[in-house]
Amino acid sequence: MNRIALLITLLILAILTSCTPTPKKIVAVSQCSVDEWRTQMNNEMLREAFFHNDMEVEIHSTSDNSQEQIDVIEQFISRKVDLIVVAPNEAEPLRPVIEKAFDAGIPVVLIDRKINSNKYTAFIGGDNVEVGRLAGNYVAELLKGKGRIVEIEGLYGSSSSQERHKGFHEVIDKYDDINIVSSFCADWQEDKAEAIMDSIGEAIGDVDLVFAYNDRMAIGAKKSALKRGGNNAQIPYIGVDALLDERIGISRIADGTLNASFLYQTGGDKAIFIADCILSGKPYERDNIFQTSVVNKSNVHLMNIHAGHIDEQNGKIEFLNSKLDDFFKDYESQRIVLVTFIIITVLVCILLFVSITAYNAKTRLNDQLEMQKEVLEIQKNELSEQKEKLERQRDQLEAERDKLIEAQGCEEHGEEDKTTIEDETNFFMDRLNKVFDENIDNSELTVEMIGAEMGLSRVQLYRRTKASCGLSPNEALRARRLNKAYKMLRETDKSISEVAYEVGFSSPSYFAKCYKDYFGHNPTESLRK
Ligand code: FRU
């Protein structure tokens, strides 16, 4: 039975493990901000992950807070995730924890922003120096080399802001007649740019152009100017990102809010693609730099057409994704039903097998017992036949011996009779009957044993018994046994066999025969009615 239990356990385990999906590799993403640009990037990552079955992408976003981001990455390290994708909020504060992950053997893919270290596995992002340069050239051309401008930078500590600053100043500083009347940091935030412009707008007076390091801050500054009215609401506002987004993207160039923006691709799909290459040992480029280009009134229409098309395709992919999700959910529940069904079927089969085997074993055992019973019955009958035979032979033998004594005893009879007196006879018979009664249930009782108890030889016993009652000791004993049996049959509820054994017969059938010979009827007729 133990073997069967082991077999069932192994079988169920085999079914379960064959049905358990292999664990997916965890790609943990740490985003430094929560905004439209990041949302688009995250969507691209999740969409791309769909094409890589063996990985699971987890995205954890923090709100422009370096310490919070460090804590998130610490958790990734202690969880021993398979790969980390990170957009470092600030280059220097994030460097140690990213190096720690890299040193711990976790591949690190930097996206969009960099750290001041070489300890990373791959980088995917735009060329921010080039973005700055292109913007510088565009501004200088638009102003024809002369004008007053406001520069709004991103978070100072972020590599993207530092690089855009470098590229922009590389170009703009060459123009003596272009004056930067105000340059401030709005931490990549629309509200912050708007608020700062609200507070310094009056003081800086009329300007010719505002360049912000992203579109959100440019839109914030424009909002502030629109509130105040005047010249600054009419000048060009230029940003970076050119996102395919209704609120802060290229549609704001189409509607005239922004004069231009510089394409800064999100590339979430590319990041996951590279992550997959790293995890599966495929070749990949370490530094993957996206190209940039200006988007303004002249090409925004074209961009919009493309954007619409891309949106449509994305929608279709998303639709397919959700369809496939439903399909997988259905498949999963069907798989569970199937596995349960297989387990139940296997259990039922095993149970059936065990029951059939047990039933067969029981039938076989019953047959064997039946056979053994029959053999025992036959042996019992043979034994009781032999017993009866022996009892008969013994009685015959005793009778033969009595006859012999009788023959001898006749010669001495005359002398004995003369000395016999009536009292003595009665006394002798009482003693004899007492010995009989004390041993009545003993089928092994012999004349010698009786003689020994009474202190007489077999011959003496024979002679005195014969003289006292006219019977040999054997006949007297038989008569005593049968009379007692008669009494028991009449007065008790005992069966014939019980009575036979109690009066010293070892074979009930022989008892019945002797009984009939003695009383002239069967013991059944003496039974109490
Ligand atoms: C998004 C963002 C973009 C900007 C980039 C620079 O979080 O602020 O607008 O181009 O980060 O890293």
How would you concisely characterize the structure shown here?
The protein has helices spanning 2-19, 36-49, 66-79, 91-103, 128-142, 159-172, 190-204, 215-228, 251-254, 268-280, 300-419, 422-438, 447-454, 458-469, 473-491, 496-502, 508-519, and strands at residues 25-31, 55-61, 83-86, 108-111, 122-126, 147-153, 178-185, 209-212, 237-241, 260-263, 287-290, 294-296.
The count of DSSP E runs of length 2 or more, i.e. the number of strands, is 12
The residue-averaged pLDDT reads 92
Instruction: Report how far apart the termini are.
Output: 57 Å
Q: Which structural category fits the helices and strands? A: alpha/beta
What's the total helix number? 17
Chemical compounds bound to the protein: beta-D-fructofuranose
Strand content: 5-15%
